[in-house]
UniProtKB/TrEMBL annotation:
The active site is at C366. PANTHER family: DIAMINOPIMELATE DECARBOXYLASE, GROUP IV DECARBOXYLASE. This is Diaminopimelate decarboxylase. Substrate binds at R298, R335, Y339, E367, Y395. It comes from Paenibacillus beijingensis.
Length: 449
């Protein structure tokens, strides 16, 4: 049997009843009270991760901002925690911006990302007076300058550049290579041209540059290479345009451990590599040390999340495979279907029992691809058992859908034995809340009837 203990993150443990406990709450109690599927967030672990970033930067002595990439998990309660922990916040849409503002997140610490911000989104962000726009392309550069001008404002920007560094990760989630929909290409000269143009635009104040080289990155080499390229670029810009960057943003992508195959570094190791490399590069060039920003998403919330499911049916195909189906699936966690992402799980109500068989966990959607975990070792699972899938805090609720008109689960935050709802489970009436039967269909329904 593989030791499952190593997938227990934060406050997760097995209690004296043999049940999985998170944040001092017995998960079988949580399932009974809130129903399943249920997202459980270990609040202490979220806060611990946030603090690891802040403390690693404090130790470096550099000026910094740690911006939580809210796309990983954007709900009001999470924005409040990010604010309380002194983080900044990245948003990529009006919806994420609205969530942050409604949570009372200080606008000055909000950064707006995205490769196709609409004029409406830009205006909303201008009115809210957010701290910084991360400009992705020339169209946006000119549009933002014009819209800021209409409002008589001058706004802070970073330019997103693609440094040509590709982090080792799954193809679909790597963005640092030149052939990317994101950012100004460094090698081809677009990045330089963008700086030249931005510094001449009256309503924009160029703080510096941004680079994000990928996701689920397990080494520091990619960040070092990106820091070198960005620094080289800063020197080039200073030499040719006599312009100095105040801010260097090295993005997110810090890895977490979903399974035993994943080997992330400690947060402090990533940050030390980044700050050391920036300090060395810029000091050598006699360049004023810029402020360093990073944007962790997954690594703030990923391992703090656990999804609880109730086991339903099973199907044993002798000599082939045994399927065990749960009451959720790709609607609450599309990542296995999208990226072949892997997860670990235990039976939460029998967490101390040894594995007895290898099964594959299927979701309940009408898609053969709706599988959550292939080849998972478990005690013999029975209908009514509780399955706990680990590391679902990032890009799960955020990517959840209503496919098959399945209701999105509730999210509860647990801490010190208390459980609090952060998102209510959708109701059946929520499912049709936006539906409208056009009048003419009602009429024809009447005449036909
Ligand atoms: C997605 C994203 C992040 C966060 O990535 P994680 O892998 O969740 O840390 C940070 N910055 C940008 C620009 C992103 O697109």
């Amino acid at each position: 049997m593989r030791g499952k203990w190593m997938y227990f993150h934060g406050t997760s443990k097995i209690n004296d009843k043999g049940h999985l406990e998170i944040g001092g709450c017995d998960t079988t109690d949580l399932a009974r009270e809130y129903g399943t599927p249920l997202y459980v967030v270990d609040e202490a672990l979220v806060r611990q991760r946030a603090r690891e970033y802040v403390e690693a930067f404090r130790a470096s002595g550099l000026k910094f901002q740690v911006a939580y990439a809210s796309k990983a998990f954007s709900v009001l309660a999470m924005c409040v925690i990010a604010e309380q922990e002194g983080l900044s916040l990245d948003v990529v849409s009006d919806g994420e911006l609205y969530t942050a503002l409604q949570a009372g997140f200080p606008a000055g610490r909000i950064h707006f990302h995205g490769n196709n911000k609409t004029p409406e989104e830009i205006n909303m962000a201008l009115d809210a007076e957010i701290g910084c726009f991360v400009v992705d392309n020339f169209t946006e550069l000119r549009l933002l300058n014009a819209l800021a001008g209409d409002k008589g404002k001058k706004v802070n920007i970073l330019l997103r550049i693609t440094p040509g560094v590709e982090a080792h990760t799954h193809d679909y989630i790597s963005t640092g290579q030149e052939d990317s929909k994101f950012g100004f290409d460094l090698q081809g000269g677009a990045a330089f041209q963008a700086v030249e143009e931005a510094t001449g635009l009256k309503h924009l104040h160029l703080l510096g540059v941004h680079s994000h080289i990928g996701s689920q990155i397990f080494e520091v080499e990619g960040f070092r290479m990106a820091a070198d390229k960005v620094c080289g670029f800063a020197l080039d810009v200073r030499a040719k345009l006599n312009y100095t960057f105040q801010v260097i943003n090295l993005g997110g992508g810090f890895g977490i451990r979903y399974t035993n195959d994943d080997t992330p570094l400690q947060v402090a190791e990533y940050i030390k590599a980044i700050t050391d490399s920036v300090r060395t590069n810029f000091t050598k060039a006699d360049y004023p040390l810029p402020e360093i920003w990073v944007e962790p998403g997954r690594s703030i919330v990923g391992d703090a999340g656990t999804t609880l499911y109730t086991v339903g049916t099973s199907k044993d195909i002798p000599g082939v495979r045994k399927y065990v189906s749960v009451d959720g699936g790709m609607t609450d966690n599309p990542r296995p279907a999208l990226y072949q992402s892997q997860y670990e799980a235990v039976l939460a109500n029998r967490a101390g029992e040894p594995a007895a068989e290898t099964v594959s966990i299927a979701g309940k959607c009408c898609e053969s691809g709706d599988m959550l975990i292939w080849d998972l070792e478990l005690p013999q699972a029975k209908s009514g058992d509780l399955l706990a899938v680990f590391c679902t805090g990032a890009y799960n609720y955020a990517m959840a859908s209503n496919y098959n008109r399945i209701r999105r689960p509730a999210v509860v935050f647990v801490r010190d034995g208390a459980a609090d709802v952060a998102v209510k489970r959708e109701t059946l009436s929520d499912i049709i809340a936006g539906d409208v039967i056009p009048e003419r269909l009602r009429k024809s329904a009447l005449t036909n009837g």
